[in-house]
Structures
1.
Amino acid sequence: MKQLTRAALLTAALVLTACGGGEEGGSGETAVTATGPADAQVVTVVSNAKIEFEPATVNAKVGTLKLTHRVEGAIPHNLVFDDQSLGGTQTLTEGKEETLTLTFKDAGTYDFLCTIHTGQDGQVVIS
Ligand SMILES: [Cu+2]
């Protein structure tokens, strides 16, 4: 009986570890890797009705990334990089999208946000 309990606890601990590792942030945040060759990578980031970027993390390589920002839901959003040289999109309404052509020369983390909604942010991680 005692051994059974220990086994059950171990199993529970493993399940918790697996959950913690798989879901970054725990609030529905997701990560995707841009597709395509280094000089023509493509990704779409949606501003959803929950006022989140989806995905919140884009992984890409040094090179050129065409990042399309699309708005779903009735609330307008924009997507603006902290690094002003990267720029940002206009404020877009439901169903609209705009594509930024971004050149990343260095590996690193490039943060972006929606200037309308505090806490709506994301990042491009270049490797
Ligand atoms: Cu927003």
2.
Amino acid sequence: MTEHDKRSRWRSFCPQCGRETETFYDNLCESCFRAGLSLLDPDRIAEDVHASVSVCQHCGSFFKGNERTELEVVVEDAVRRAISKTYGPECPVGLMELRIERDEGARSAHVFLRVKAEIKGVPVVESAEFSLLVRRAICVQCSRIAGGYYAAIVQIRADWRTPNEDELEAAAALAYGALGKEEFVSKQQLLKEGLDLYVSSAEVGRRMAKAIVKHMGGTYAESQKLYGRRGGRELYRVTFLVRLPGYTEGDVLELAGKRIAVERIVPDEGLEGIDVETGERYFVPLRDQKRAKRV
Ligand SMILES: [Zn+2]
Ligand SMILES: [Zn+2]
């Protein structure tokens, strides 16, 4: 018997089950090695998720710190982290299935998982089903809304008149349509002269003012007021004063003895209209509208 034969005979038994084998994984045959593997430890995953994510009880969004996230992302991270901690960061992990069932507003979620990984060259598939608890909190955005926080005000007015209800409604719809994901209106105030919207940032206020003027005509002006200091930085609140056109389509105005029915508003320039008696067409520039009277 050669040295090689002896060696291979000695190596060909699994010390755990005694089965003959040619290939060893951590000194065990493949099936004993597999039997000792455990990819998914539900308690550990649930604990990790519980520690790293919270759900806002106002808006229902999930947060990791102050950053918005999805529960699926957090669960997947926890799974990958657990496997890599046990079997090394180099072993490939793939999520074959991840389903999370959650009742609206419920603190607990039910997770269905199917994961595949390759541990020391052995492909393993494992499934798990378990419940986890999610911490409840109030996110920064919701607490700011609740506290009436605002960084800018959008004031909707009209030249030489009060905007009517339809106009305010249309302007408000345009303003809300300009809201981005993290932005909000914390207060909406109806006044004799128009509507004020208290918004989360100067950027969104500016976007709202632009959207209103683009669709409804008129102009907007921006002004800022110092309201405090934080960490040596001056804090400003910005006001966007939106002025809708003084006249709207369908109005009849009196100017220099003529009665003119408004047909079209030309943003930033004036309006086009028809003399109701002669049928003649006129263009009335903005600067002349001040002298006109609505009839
Ligand atoms: Zn074995
Ligand atoms: Zn929230």
